[in-house]
Amino acid sequence: MRKWGPAVLSAVLAVMLAFAVTGPASADKRPRQKTPSKIVYLTFDDGPNSMNDPRLLRILAREQVPATFFVLGNLLAADRQRATELWLAGHAIGNHTWAHPDLTFLSPAAIHHQFASTQRLMGPGAGACMRPPYGATNSTVSNVANGLGLKQVLWTVDPQDYAHQNAAYLTTYISSRVHDKAIVLMHDGGGPRGATTSAVKQLIPILRARGYEFRTVPSCRVPLKGSATDAAKPKVRKPEPVVPDEPVPTPSAPAGMAP
User: Fold this and answer.
1) What is the pLDDT along the chain (259 residues), one digit of tens a residue?
2) 30 in a domain, yes or no?
3) Which positions are catalytic?
């Protein structure tokens, strides 16, 4: 049996010790796999609602969470800037019809009116998506929507917050059923929604701790172009200079109207 000398033994021990500390050289070159984020879409129906939206929007802004709002045309008619304000805040806007009817009972022409009249009021952030009220849909509804370029978006998690205004219940229900690419249905309109807003506040850190990332529904998303700050400013024409010594004409009231 061959005996190794002290020098050889020392060299072998040094190599073994280095391998134990650093591991094989190939391991250092192995790229680390980044764990992919899970995605969840928070969606809100039946707005805009000036009573419920301010607190909800403050929470979403503070937490930097984008959401998707399916709006009603008859409410937008009373507040035409609301949809654009939501869009400028980083949210997506979808079409929820004009007056929230069950579309399966309407004619194709009436369905077209419900979507088209609402889409016209949604402003530059109008997404190419719609959500039928009550989730009531059929081939006629889908065909009319497709003709307008609107993709149907339903949901996968429904806590029925319109019937359960209890923040603890809503938080538990949603957090126990959420999954990757879940579309969560909630409401910012249709009545007081304080519990819904409180549940959103509680859900955000819970879902983030589980590795979820919040996004807007892709078909409803319209990217901002240019500066959002500039876009939010109304364009104001500079007044024409008044020539001295010339009378400034006073416009008369239209016929049939008091001055």
Assistant:
1) 455 555 544 554 554 545 444 444 444 455 555 556 899 999 999 999 998 899 999 999 999 999 999 999 999 999 989 999 999 999 999 999 999 999 999 999 999 999 999 999 999 999 999 999 999 999 999 999 999 999 999 999 999 999 999 999 999 999 999 999 999 999 999 999 999 999 999 999 999 999 999 999 999 999 986 433 333 333 333 444 444 444 434 334 333 333 3
2) no
3) 45, 187
CATH number of the domain encompassing residue 50: 3.20.20.370
**143 membership: H or E segment, kind and range:** helix 139-147
In a domain, 120, yes or no: yes
Residue 108 placed within a domain: yes
153/179 Cα distance (integer angstroms): 17
CA–CA distance, 148 with 245 (Å, rounded to integer): 56
Two structure tokens written together for 157: 């998690």
User: What domain range includes position 208?
Assistant: 38-225
Q: Tell me if 2 is assigned to some domain.
A: no
Give the count of alpha carbons within 13 A of 116, CB side only.
10
Which two structure tokens, joined as six digits, stand for 134? 């009550």
Positive or negative, the Cα torsion across 183, 185, 188, 190?
A: positive
Contact yes or no for 117/101 (Cβ under 8 A): no
The model's pTM is 0.75
